[in-house]
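Prompt: Have a read of the protein record below and flag anything odd:
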Amino acid sequence: MPLLAVDSLKVNYGAVEAVRGIDFQIDQGEIVTLLGANGAGKSSTLNALVGLVPVASGRVVFDGTDVTDHAPERLAPLGMTLSPEGRRVFATLSVEENLRMGAYAIGNRSEIKAAWERVYDLFPILRERREQYAGTLSGGQQQMLAVGRALMSNPRLLLLDEPSLGLAPKIVEQIFELIGVLRGQGVTLVVVEQNVSMALEIADRGYVLSSGRIVSAGTAAELSRSENLQDVYLGAE
């Protein structure tokens, strides 16, 4: 049984069909990337999976449980969280307070402390700046904080939306190295990423979206050679 199964998922914004009946699945331990030009429906798909936008029709099944239209606060205790595009840190809260916000599903104080330590081990700079306001961090540090906040609930499935967006190349390399470390710790990942070559380097499989539909699917190696992928991105970046 897949960890995540998506069946005929549709997402609408008024009369606009953003996602048009897509099907895909994610197995435990995989890194899967969703690729496509801007407006292809990638972020809308992730947002629908975690209940940030309503599902017009279709089903989302996580670890055997139908979670279609579950709110994010119901999904985190089940083990699925999203690190959103654009970071969206709480600028006027400290690093440590931001991380605590990600642990709202954990009631045990010792578990929260252990989650803090895990994040600080992954991102030592956040430990150094734990009392600093999040809004004063660099873009790369804010991205680390956004990922760390999502990790505070100890997810089994982590959804990363554009983790490299707007970051310097050195920081991008660190973020992608972290993705490999997380997989080694047993976290399954779905990555929406504008950097196609790096996404395919770390992914096992991928799906290519265009105009809200999946137009290609395959292993990372297969997609790297795909003319369909080239067509989707031709002139789009």
